[in-house]
């Protein structure tokens, strides 16, 4: 997406992130394995804005550190990065399981959150299909089947050979026990009760054919009572919106940013 950077988080752990552009910042949260590479196509937003994608602990060149991996830790790492980058307020964007990281950040650091965008997002994994997907990831990681996971995740997301290589390389960079833990967190984390604490506008973006996440809209509309909530459906795609419908997604993100305020 942009130039690769390293910094040290709150506990001294060295973390790795992509950064491109200037202006109002977007901070992206990725699903397990695929890392910041999944947001390669969002680099075009940097023509007018700053685009930042942190590789969560254990991904790419990000170290694991010596503390247990949690969503709250991911939020704290992102806060440390924002301070490092001198970004006071940002729009946090979570894709798939990355939505849990974005919600963790918005809940813990409302003063830093200008808006929340969830792409195929959910506050808690309680549908059979989504739980099965996360369990499959956990099981395959425990069996050290990273090459198979890398092949599956890279091919389901894109036909672009460069992006496929980057996604596959990201998956292979994660230690099997860390990858297993990230998939487990997707089954454990629950931000339903915190939705009524959101203080920034919320946008939900779904592919019209998304079999995993569309059913979760009712949770957001019922529970996020203090902020405006908007849904956008993107034609011709299922769950993999950032890679398969990047132009449409980027246009929606730019429009949301204008409404959230520059």
From TrEMBL:
One of its GO terms (cellular component) is membrane. It comes from the Bacteria. Residues 49-241 form the Serine aminopeptidase S33 domain. SUPFAM superfamilies: alpha/beta-Hydrolases. Pfam families: Hydrolase_4. GO terms for molecular function: hydrolase activity. Keywords: Hydrolase. InterPro entries: AB_hydrolase_1, AB_hydrolase_fold, AB_hydrolase_sf, Hydrolase_4. The keyword ATP-binding does not apply. This is Alpha/beta hydrolase. It comes from Salicibibacter halophilus.
